[in-house]
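Key result, reporting period 2: structure in, sequence out.
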């Protein structure tokens, strides 16, 4: 579809007849599906489903990430006009990507949330698609990993974050975004020997066997070395990538609940995400975007770019299988 035909297109998230291809609509109008993908619950023939989880009841400080999926979708309307920069392929042309909408849950029954999210992701995986999820606070990754581990077995994880989220917590009924990875390790959802944390800059006494590339190491030794090390750690096995937006420095992404200075800059993050091409990515998420703390929208824009890079990484992995 050419730009001159844009005036004939109305809300292609609902009206497009072909699910693949770029989209040309006014960025300031129309339905805000992610990258203007089709909104649908029909996963027939779908490769990758984008889904939102507007949950922020596990935070230790500032809430607001329940508004993250909506803000990331809105920010993404700036992106679907051109192939993704720096990639040799175009996943929107070569793969069927849809917006599956948000998880529906009762906000007043928090204890029921984990099982609801696992069932939500399980249903998508059973239909033959994989997922990129828009959060939401970082607790959501734990129920997602449960569904993924059912299909793929213990996963390698690449975890971008300022915090390790490995606080000791053996009470599985507790819902806390600072302990999700501790529980993922302890319940066998991930393989610590094939998992790496990038951007860490808060104290953790026990990393439970995970490798760590902290923010200072990235700054001093460079992104290229970090990527080589990360690829060596995760190897060729099924890998899940979770990106907490507070991995970025607050000067780049202030809209998050627990900001920490000294973080990655956007050029470092995008260079690493693109150079991770070749890992066997089976799914991913971007979490902790909290729009109320960023009136500029820059944090949501960063989140949208991360999610698009995850789509590209997933597509590249499919071409290598």
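The corresponding designed sequence is given below.
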């Amino acid at each position: 579809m050419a730009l001159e035909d844009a005036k004939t297109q109305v809300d292609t998230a609902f009206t497009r007849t072909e699910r693949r291809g770029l989209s040309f609509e006014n960025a300031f109008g129309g339905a805000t599906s992610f990258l203007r993908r089709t909104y649908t619950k029909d996963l027939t023939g779908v490769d990758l489903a984008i889904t939102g989880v507007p949950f922020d009841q596990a935070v230790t400080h500032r809430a607001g990430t329940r508004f993250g999926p909506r803000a990331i979708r809105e920010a993404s309307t700036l992106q679907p006009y051109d192939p993704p920069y720096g990639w040799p392929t175009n996943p929107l042309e070569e793969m069927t990507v849809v917006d599956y909408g948000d998880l529906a849950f009762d906000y007043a029954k928090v204890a029921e949330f984990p099982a609801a999210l696992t069932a939500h992701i399980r249903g998508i995986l059973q239909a033959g698609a994989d997922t990129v999820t828009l959060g939401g606070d970082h607790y959501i990754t734990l129920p997602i990993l449960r569904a993924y581990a059912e299909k793929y077995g213990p996963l390698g994880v690449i975890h971008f974050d300022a915090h390790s989220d490995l606080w000791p917590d053996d009470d599985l009924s507790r819902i806390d975004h600072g302990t999700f990875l501790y529980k993922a390790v302890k319940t066998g959802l991930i393989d610590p020997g094939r998992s790496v944390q990038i951007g860490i800059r808060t104290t953790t006494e026990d990393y439970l066997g995970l490798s760590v590339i902290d923010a200072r190491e990235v700054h001093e030794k460079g992104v290229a070395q970090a990527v080589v090390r990360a690829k060596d750690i995760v190897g060729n096995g099924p890998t899940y990538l979770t990106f907490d937006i507070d991995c970025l420095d607050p000067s780049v992404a202030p809209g998050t609940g627990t900001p920490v200075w000294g973080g990655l800059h956007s050029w470092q993050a995008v260079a690493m995400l693109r150079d991770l091409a070749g890992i066997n990515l089976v799914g991913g998420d971007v979490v902790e975007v909290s729009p109320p703390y960023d009136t500029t929208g820059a944090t949501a824009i960063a989140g949208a770019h991360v999610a698009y890079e995850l789509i590209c990484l997933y597509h590249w992995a499919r071409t290598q299988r």
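The first helix runs from residue 12 to 15. The mean pLDDT is 94. This case is discussed further under Risks and Mitigation.
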